[in-house]
Fold these 2 entries.
Entry 1:
Amino acid sequence: MFEGLQEKLSKAFKTLSGKGKITEKNIKEAIKMVKLSLLEADVNYKVVKEFIAEVTEKATGEEVLKSLTPDQMFIKILRDELIRVMGEKSQLSLVHSPSYIMMVGLQGSGKTTSAAKLANLLKKKGKKTFLVAADTYRPAAIDQLITLGKKIDVPVFYGDRKDPVKIVREAIKEVKDSGYNVVIFDTAGRLHVDDEMMNELEEIKDILNPDEILMVVDAMAGQDAVNSAKIFNERLDVTGYVVTKMDGDARGGVILSIRYITNKPIKFIGVGEKIEDLEEFHPERIASRILGLGDVLSLIEKAEQELDKDKMQKLGKKMLNAEFTLEDFQEQLKEIKKLGSLSKIVEMLPGSPKVDINQSEKELKVIEAIINSMTPEERRNPKILNASRKKRIAKGSGTSVQEVNKLLKNYEEMKKMMKIFKKGKLPFNLKGFKI
Ligand code: GDP
């Protein structure tokens, strides 16, 4: 997320590091670099203009805090300004029962996927959720929603599959007095904004009087997405946006421009193709990510949602007692994979530690394949692994006996280390060890 922008902005901070204080001269160069970074990230020029004016005023004004160094101060000013252009966090406003949410947007933006992701998120929050497939325009959109609905165990209504307005009217009858809290309507998009689509959406809006009209926009589409966001808002008075494909190499233009241009909030971001890959939009966390300060809060939240706490606690205890077997390790790997790919996890850490993600992912896959090829008994007691067993495991996991030996050696070393920890004797001096 935002690699290019992050890298360029960090060069701007560096011009100030080591400087005694912010002066008009040294800040000028840094601000120029920020301006270029934003323009290259495809941020709307009006937003850039105001952003730079505000940052210049704050950086050269009297607000500079004595406790911070010039580069830290500059980061703080940029962070505040990024948050300001993205607006405050805005939540769904679900007032009716059932509440209707209408999903709108152009074809390919990720509308159908986001409808199902949102249903999943709300279901996890305890809402009884229902989906309506009224995208009759894109072939396969209805079947796609039916499949996704099955996956998350949310019913999907699709009527005659032909007339969207009729489907919507029938769906309303279907959910009446049914106890559903939220009904999400997937509507038809087009490749470009056109009148037929807008008329259809206006008609559906009039029928539903929905609590939320969420427009789905593709972060990769840059200023085109911002322009269509503006047109949709003018016609439909949307209540918010879902910005998808933030996991791709989106440059930041959409996320930093849309609020300023439309005056409507981003409510969610799509961060991957999987059904769990939808996050509530937190401007301050995104600002931190853009500035390379990480997003530990989102990582913790994800861990709380996805991980089995009892299991992790038990595994942690076993580790401390040096009773950690390869079977436990297998369990732990399974749990951690629920948080997403390694690269996604590392991205949320401050300073995005420079590790070779591809290499680490590969190594983890090898470890997992080896452990999966063992019998439960071997995992619990690796001591029984003789040459022929190792050969069998290497063959089964598509690895080599050397790789099996390497894993066993690492495991033994880890156990030794845990024993030393337990005795309270640290094997190395932790002084100066930074967390
Ligand atoms: P629709 O025409 O707007 O209904 O688009 P779809 O929901 O079918 O999405 C189009 C494509 O974008 C599909 O391949 C989705 O898997 C993909 N997609 C949607 N949201 C995201 C996202 O947040 N990240 C990524 N990487 N892909 C997404």
Entry 2:
Amino acid sequence: EKGGYPHFMLKEIYEQPKTIIDCTRGRISADGSSVTLSGVMANKERFLNANRIIFVACGTSWHASLIGERLIEEMCRIPVEVEYASEFRYRNPVINKGDIVIAVSQSGETADTLAAVELAKERGAFIFGICNQVGSSIARATDSGTYIHVGPEIGVASTKAFTGQVTVMAMIALTLAHEKGTVTPEYFSEVIRGLQRLPELIERVLESDGRISELSKIFTYSRNFLYLGRGYNYPVALEGALKLKEISYIHAEGYPAAEMKHGPIALIDSEMPVVAIATADNIYDKTVSNIQTVKARGGKIIAVVTEGDTVVRAIADHCIEVPPIIECLTPILVSVPLQLLAYHIAVNKDRNVDQPRNLAKSVTVE
Ligand code: M6R
């Protein structure tokens, strides 16, 4: 049932070109001129008039939501907030008429997320779900939603669900932006083209697996890791760190690259590997200078860069390339090598990759 792979996690990482196709199937027209999400269109007025969107989620789904925040704010100009479901539910949150709560959950069974949905519902919010598990408790408790349709995810570490969630969020942003007229036709087409090319581009990223496996051997015995990213890839830094923590049991932290100078920089020495996401985006130059700062303090840099990069390559100790794509979709490509890096380090350490200690696939208790 692992399809010839040694672990479900690796199988699920390799499934991503296909799961993205399943996730976008029937939702993007073949000629790339439109995106149709029935759950969004059925509630079009509500979405178009929304004062605010609040994402509630846990773990990886919370990281995906941080990307959703950027996508929706950038494309639709609707204010977005992202809350840990566990904090939201005990905070007596302000929920106003006209707010939309989006619950994001792979399993659809996470206790805190379900409780956050129930609370928001009591307060009269409109609740939209982004789930994978069809007919799950959260999917049933929401007013409407969009499934990610990536198939069963068995490995405790979420991989294909994350890329599916971000893909759905990009499609939601596009649907609303198209209706609101908040993006140019050129931008709209470029994002769609990017979504259509994702499967092929993820295949290309997967070709680096052998190199990442080699690279992982250098870092098997590291005690700590720092992951840095900015903009759309700051949440990917958080996600990369979470993957490493949960399956290899190595302490890792994700940070917005520019925040490093406000504290974590004190941790950097030659024993501290730093995974720096430095794809060609509008703050690339700033990221480069953050990387130079790490280098100057002896940190070991593993950089994720866009194909053809020369500037970071000259500074970093190791580089992993991803193909170019429109900036807002880079998280989907960048997350893949970080999944593989965590996977190989965990395998090197002989960890139980699919069922890490102390963790359950769905956290149905508080
Ligand atoms: O099923 P959910 O998406 O609601 O799960 C939320 C988290 O428990 C989950 O993402 C967890 O953080 C994963 N093990 C991360 O890989």
